[in-house]
Amino acid sequence: MSKTANTNLIMSDAASRRQRISTLLGQSFLFLITSLSTFAVFFIFYFILKDAIPFFKLEGFTEFFSSTRWYPSGSPAEFGALPIFVGTGLVTLGAVAVAVPLGISAAVCLSDLLPFKVRQIVKPVIEVLAAIPSVAYGFFALVVFAPLLQNHGGIILSTGVWLVLGPILALLVIVLGDLLIDKLRKQIPNPKIAGAIIFPILGTLTLIFLFQLSTRLLGLEISSGTNALNVSIILGIMALPTVVSVSEDALQAAGRELREGSYALGATRAETIIKTIIPASISGILAAVILGVMRAIGETMVVWMASGNASRIPEPWYNVLQPIRTLTATIAGDMGEADHVTGSSRFHVLFAMAFCLLAFSFIMNLVSEIIVKRSRKKLGK
């Protein structure tokens, strides 16, 4: 039997050559398919940079990055894009402030607090938010949310403070309380007694702070609902499914053994989540945050419809209640007008903006890769 089997495994030279060639062709085909996305990125970089360089040759870098005067159709034309960069950064930070605390809190809740059956219902519902077209979000922001913000902005902001800052400050209270208990171990040897003193004090101070802040915001009047705050909240909601889904997957990947090990050492559920699970999943959570930032910074339709499109820096610069203008909205809005003057600075400046967006996205992706690698190395993965 063994002699017959060995005879069947011996191939002729021609058959062996055909097998090697077919293997090589198959691998080459799969490599080509895998490389298509890489080639697409390089081609996009090349064509955008090709049309961006003429602008910098004609107008230079100084006015584009430092001037606050954006009059591309004026005579003479002025291309100061600093307010547009500030507007882009402002709405991105605002979206991060909305999406990150809510998204990570929701992910922790889904992975470690809610029963499995409830999670199977809630997670798909959150992910449905990603399937809503951006123009629908923009329409909602312009027609529904902007009038609400203008007429009842104080109540909305006051409620938003509790919803957004509440989870963040609750986590801070837990972490700070544990640190204080460790530091006061000599003075108060019993951790339960120390916790019974420290946590109520920190919790009360936090509630007083939130109450005072929400009370001050309650009387706030907003002159226009189409502003940076409107866009930031909507962009934060749009980025929420990405942050929740990727963070929840990262928390789940931490594994049951890690949780059981922490419980076996006497840690509570809160201590296990904060001190064990979140640090072990930090690379995935950071990746989720960066993907959420990318979702917010690259969005066009919502910012075009609901940001007010005012190319000026708010006073002070962090005032999210004033209209702003972003890079994506400027490119989308001006491309139709600039198309008939192809070859002019007004045409090429839009490619310069697109190149800045692309370069920022590329750098952020590189940073996320570096963070993930360092986190995995630190955790010994």
UniProtKB/TrEMBL annotation:
InterPro entries: MetI-like, MetI-like_sf
Pfam families named in the record: BPD_transp_1
Domain of life: Bacteria
ABC transmembrane type-1 domain segment(s): 85-368
Gene3D superfamilies reported in the protein's UniProt record: MetI-like
Keyword Phosphoprotein set for record: no
Topology in membrane: Multi-pass membrane protein
Transmembrane parts of this sequence: 21-49, 81-114, 126-149, 155-181, 193-211, 231-251, 272-297, 349-372
Record-stated family: Belongs to the binding-protein-dependent transport system permease family.
Protein name: PstC family ABC transporter permease
Species for this entry: Pontiella agarivorans
Highest classification ranks of the organism: Bacteria, Pseudomonadati, Kiritimatiellota, Kiritimatiellia, Kiritimatiellales
